[in-house]
Write a structure and sequence with these properties.
The protein has one domain (14-93). Helix content is 12%, strand content 31%. The protein has helices at residues 18-21, 58-64, and strands at 13-17, 27-32, 39-43, 53-57, 78-81, 90-93. The chain has a four-stranded antiparallel β-sheet, with no helix packed on it. Strand 5 and strand 6 form a beta hairpin.
Length: 94
């Protein structure tokens, strides 16, 4: 990737699940937390149990799913979801 679209650097720690990282589950729901600016990437199977959680770099998430680049300007306190792995992202305020 030549032009990094996010204001956060690629090595920013983000929260996701082991199934998402292992490509067993696709990313259904993304949040950009208002309180601390944290990014969370959840699979279609719902909230990630603590035992299944993973912390990875934002760049890793973009490599796993390049469509996440479309959310680079997602404001703090907003979320995005989609109905399928190739469906368009729908945004809303939390």
């Amino acid at each position: 990737m030549t032009n990094w679209p996010f204001s956060d650097p690629p090595d920013t720690a983000v929260f996701t699940g082991k199934k998402v990282v292992g490509k067993v589950d696709w990313i259904y729901y993304v949040t950009h937390d208002r309180e601390d600016g944290a990014w969370q990437f959840h699979g279609q199977s719902g909230p990630t149990p603590e035992a299944e959680a993973s912390v990875v770099g934002l760049g890793t998430m973009i490599r796993l799913d390049p469509s996440l680049e479309q959310l680079a300007d997602l404001p703090l306190g907003w979320c995005a979801s989609r109905q399928g792995p190739t469906a368009p992202w729908e945004r809303r305020e939390l």
